[in-house]
Amino acid sequence: MKKLDRRDRSAAIAAAVFLLVFGAGFLFLPRAMIYLGAISPYLAAFVGTVFVLAFFFVFWLRARYQRRR
């Protein structure tokens, strides 16, 4: 098995953190939206939309960072 160099290890750790954060977020998002929907359906829609857009925003930021390197 090939050893990971420092850069590959850093990318693997970042990917793992990303998967854990957004995986947990998407796991609890339906429950949060139901809770917020009891307060206001617009609030629930807003929170769900922001969370999904944040998922893609991270990829957009990474693409910009990679393009500059």
Lay out the secondary structure.
Blueprint: H1 6-39, H2 41-68
Helix pairs in contact: 1-2
Q: Overview of this structure, please?
A:
By secondary structure, this protein is mainly α. The protein has one domain. The chain has helices spanning 6-39, 41-68. Helix 1 packs antiparallel against helix 2 (41-68). The protein is elongated and about 50 Å long. The chain starts with 5 loop residues before the first helix and ends with a helix. The mean pLDDT is 89.
Short structural description:
By secondary structure, this protein is mainly alpha-helical. It contains two helices and no strands.
- Supply the number of structural domains: 1
Largest sheet: number of strands, sense, barrel closure: none
Low-pLDDT parts are none
Percent range for β-strand residues? under 5%
Query: What is the total tally of β strands?
Result: 0
Task: Supply the helix-strand structural class.
Answer: mainly alpha
- Alpha-carbon Rg, integer: 16 Å
Dominant shape = elongated
Please estimate the helix content: over 70%
DSSP summary: helix tally? 2
**H and E order:** HH
For the termini, the CA-CA separation is 28 Å
pLDDT averaged residue by residue: 89
Descriptive key words:
69 residues, mainly alpha, 2 helices
